[in-house]
Amino acid sequence: MRNRIYIYGLILVILMAGCTSPNRGITTVSTKETLAPQAPKQQPTGTLQVYYLDVGQGDSTLIRTPNGQNVLIDGGTNGQGENVVNYLKQYGVKELEAVIATHPDADHIGGLDTVIDAIPVKSVYAPRVSHTTKTYKDFLMAVKNRGLKIKAAKAGLELPLDGVTAEFLAPVGDYGKDLNAWSAVLKVTYKNTSYLFSGDAERKSETDMVNSGANLKADVYKVGHHGSDTSTSAEFLKAIHPTYAVISVGKDNKYGHPKDVVMDRLNEARVKVFRTDEQGTIVSTSNGNTITFETER
């Protein structure tokens, strides 16, 4: 029998005159690691839930808002499309308020055509950069077949969600043919808690976000580019100042992700790290003040 492991952490943020962050009051954040609950998963009332799906070497994240709206960020590789659809059905998702394709790389958008074909979607967001691959064309065709047009993901744009704030922090500028730099970066805030989803954004984009003056602080950080040393610069990590980080990565991948330098940087910053290659699908739940985590294994 697998054991349940409970980890409780307590953070007290002391607000001083003139130093109050607009997104952080006095927030208590804790973690709980246990087995992922069996379907159907009933979302606790008044909570925001984030599912970092285990899609191997790729990215796919489901956000469920307190008011029952669902947002999917990326869909893993082509071979993961059916798995993502099965995850969504397991979690009771019948409609997606929004689908976000962070950038055209196959390990992020590969499964999105399968998802869009299988589940009704209201809106699709992607940065204004294209690709010539069949994978990207399949994604475009799936969007077209739904009768939708892609909305440009860019810094300052907010998703029309109820009860939470979801704002794109990137792309900030024009990055030519650098697909990773174009990555759509989304920050979701629910009351006194916040999450940052960074796609494959690398140092160039990270620097632009820091220099933009946007509030990057977040309790939970989805580590950029699967833990590559091209992302999670010291300056960017300091600006986020997360308590938790999640790395979406495949086992024994050929890239050596996550890189030791990134893991060292996170450890030095005393960030609690979760990894899909080691713990499977990771579920984070926020009631607006407290954040908990459940892991598949």
Note down, in words, how this protein is organized.
The chain is of the alpha/beta class. The chain has eight helices and 16 strands. It has an eight-stranded mixed β-sheet with strand order 8-7-6-5-4-3-15-16, with no helix packed on it. It is globular and about 45 Å long.
Task: Show unreliable segments.
Answer: 1-40
Sheet with most strands: strand arrangement: 8-7-6-5-4-3-15-16
Please report the distance between the alpha carbons of the first and last residues: 12 Å
The major pleated sheet works out as: 8 strands, mixed
- Structure annotation, total helices: 8
Radius of gyration: 18 Å
The SSE string, one letter per element, is EEEEEHEHHEHEEEEHEHEHEHEE
Structural class: alpha/beta
The amount of beta strand, in percent, is 15-25%
The total strand number stands at: 16
The portion of residues assigned to helices is 10-25%
**Residue-averaged pLDDT, rounded?**
89
Q: Which overall shape is indicated by the principal axes computed on the Cα atoms?
A: globular
Question: How would the blueprint of this fold be written?
Answer:
Blueprint: E1 5-7, E2 31-33, E3 48-52, E4 61-64, E5 70-73, H1 81-90, E6 96-100, H2 106-109, H3 112-118, E7 121-126, H4 134-145, E8 150-152, E9 165-170, E10 185-190, E11 193-197, H5 203-212, E12 220-222, H6 234-240, E13 244-247, H7 260-268, E14 272-275, H8 276-279, E15 282-286, E16 291-295
Parallel strand pairs: 5-6, 6-7, 7-8, 11-12, 12-13, 13-14
Antiparallel strand pairs: 1-2, 3-4, 3-15, 4-5, 9-10, 10-11, 15-16
Helix pairs in contact: 1-3, 3-4
